[in-house]
Design brief:
72 residues, alpha+beta, 25% helix, 2 helices, single chain
Length: 72
């Protein structure tokens, strides 16, 4: 997968986007990710998302987070 400028999408981009959605004061998605406990990159193409408890709707909630370049 690549961004519009042909740069590859990497795990660090996903982490930065999820962290922004979780912690930015003006984020309207904070409540969607409140159960996320930790985020980490396992390798350049794999992200691990750990939740505080089982959360069957997590994938639905993650679909609302736009992934943008980490330096955006």
């Amino acid at each position: 997968m690549r961004f519009h400028n042909s740069r590859p999408v990497e795990a660090e981009d996903v982490l930065a986007s999820l962290e922004r959605a979780r912690s930015h004061p003006r984020s309207q998605l904070r409540s969607y990710l409140v159960e996320v406990e930790t985020l980490r990159a396992l390798d350049p193409q794999t992200v691990e998302v750990r939740t505080r408890r089982p959360l069957p709707v997590l994938l639905n909630r993650l679909a609302f987070v736009y992934i943008v370049p980490r330096d955006a």
